[in-house]
Amino acid sequence: MTWGLGSGTNKQDKGDCEDQFQRKKRSLSWSPSPFTVLTEKRDALVRNGHAPNGKQLYCCRACGRQSRENPTPHAYPEALRGEILHAYQERSSLRGLTRTFGVSGTTISNWIKKK
């Protein structure tokens, strides 16, 4: 039994998904009712819960790709990251950095390993 899910390898399919995502966001922002009948093309993109930060998640039925509304590339700004790494190089303890900056020790350890 097939559910009509594509392989997701076609670049045009992925482009169509991005277009559908943007149109769906626009339609949901002005829609007077959550029960508004959607056009056939928009039915491929459905709401799929919420991320831990509260943003709406969407899933494409055509390719199975999941996306978030207004995604952000990094949780911490680059300036804060640089400041924490600089403090670590000046012999501050990992536990002290965690208390001072409010950033998880695991996150700081991963930044140190990448650098």
In short:
With 115 residues, the protein is an alpha+beta fold. 43% of the residues lie in helices and 12% in strands.
How does this structure look, described?
This protein is α+β, with helices and mostly antiparallel strands and 115 residues long. It has 2 domains: 11-68, no CATH class; 78-114. It is built from 4 helices and 3 strands. A 3-stranded antiparallel beta sheet has the order 1-2-3. The longest helix is centred in the first third of the chain and has 20 residues, at 11-30. It is elongated and about 55 Å long.
SSE map:
Blueprint: H1 11-30, E1 45-50, E2 56-60, E3 66-68, H2 78-89, H3 94-101, H4 105-114
Antiparallel strand pairs: 1-2, 2-3
